[in-house]
Design brief:
By secondary structure, the protein is an all-beta fold. It has strands spanning 5-9, 14-19, 25-30, 36-41, 47-52, 56-61, 67-72, 77-80, 85-88, 92-95, 101-112, 117-126, 132-136, 144-151, 157-163, 167-172, 180-184, 188-193, 199-204, 209-213. The relative contact order is 0.10.
């Protein structure tokens, strides 16, 4: 959060902490047993969340490298015996503005990994207990993955999906299904929100970056 540290994860099963000023490797976190797909600093800067292919989310102390606890997000993981591949994983994470909930996004119902046959899934965890409290899915969007999730200031969860079903921005409150969504011109791979809370930037498979503006509340 102070801009001085950068966290990365990779297929070597390691999480690495770097100085953003010098590029120096500061610390290496070991403990994941599958590829590390996502990283997220806690707003306080003292903790780091990392999610892997198996659906394990680890919480680390940044300064000591100590593993504090883990969240079980295996609902985002599957093993396909026929093709003998691991499928899914924690593709993205976000913390609610009040710090009480952790959202982990990815996919489920993966019947054909190489054919990109799956459906979007987001798991919501209670931060204090570490228990999963609900899930979010999408109506009538097949072959999709939640590549990025983030929270708006009012607690609304925004998700960016991409896959064979096209690209969408989706919005959830507490119900399982989204209360609003709109289609984008091409598959989405990443997303971020401007500090003004209105502009959302999305990165697309067709090589374009697009900015969508939400209407301000009256």
């Amino acid at each position: 959060p102070n801009g001085k540290l950068l966290a990365t994860g990779g297929n070597d099963l390691l999480v690495k902490l770097w100085s953003s000023e010098t590029g120096e490797l500061i610390h290496t976190f070991q403990g994941h047993k599958k590829h590390v797909y996502s990283t997220l600093f806690h707003p306080g800067g003292e903790l780091l969340l990392t999610g892997d292919l198996k659906g394990v989310v680890n919480l680390w102390e940044v300064e000591s490298g100590k593993l504090v606890r883990s969240f079980d997000a295996q609902g985002l993981y599957a093993y396909h015996g026929g093709q003998q591949v691991d499928f899914g994983g924690v593709r993205c994470m976000a913390l609610s503005p009040d710090g009480k909930q952790l959202a982990c996004g990815g996919l489920h119902k993966g019947t054909n990994p190489f054919g990109a046959t799956q459906e979007l899934l987001v798991l919501i965890f209670d931060w204090e207990s570490g228990k999963q409290i609900r899930t979010h899915e999408a109506n009538e969007i097949g072959n999709s993955i939640a590549w990025r999730v983030l929270y708006q200031g009012d607690g609304t969860l925004v998700g960016a999906s991409g896959g064979g079903g096209g690209g969408f921005l989706l919005f959830w409150k507490t119900d399982k299904m989204e209360f609003h969504k709109f289609k984008l011109p091409d598959t989405v791979h990443d997303m971020d929100m401007h500090p003004n809370g209105l502009d959302i930037v999305t990165a697309h498979h067709d090589g374009h970056i697009r900015i969508s503006r939400m209407a301000a509340k009256a």
